[in-house]
Write a structure and sequence with these properties.
Elements: H1 2-20, H2 27-46
Helix pairs in contact: 1-2
C-alpha cells in the first residue's frame, strides 16, 4: 500500500511543483506532504482501508 500511496502523491504533486517552483516559495519542499495529507483525507472519507465497521 505504501508504494501506491507514494506514486499517487508524486503524481499529484509533480505538476504543481513544476508550475510553481521559482514562483511560490518552498513549493518544491512542502507540496508532496500536502498532497499526501489531502489524498489520505479523501481515502479515509471514502472508507477505503478503514478498519471501522458501521
Amino acid at each position: 500500500m505504501r508504494r501506491k500511496q507514494d506514486a499517487q502523491t508524486q503524481y499529484a504533486a509533480d505538476p504543481v511543483i513544476k508550475k510553481y517552483t521559482g514562483v511560490l516559495a518552498a513549493a518544491d519542499v512542502y507540496t508532496r506532504s500536502h498532497a499526501f495529507v489531502l489524498l489520505e483525507s479523501i481515502r479515509l472519507d471514502l472508507g477505503v482501508g478503514s478498519p471501522v465497521h458501521p
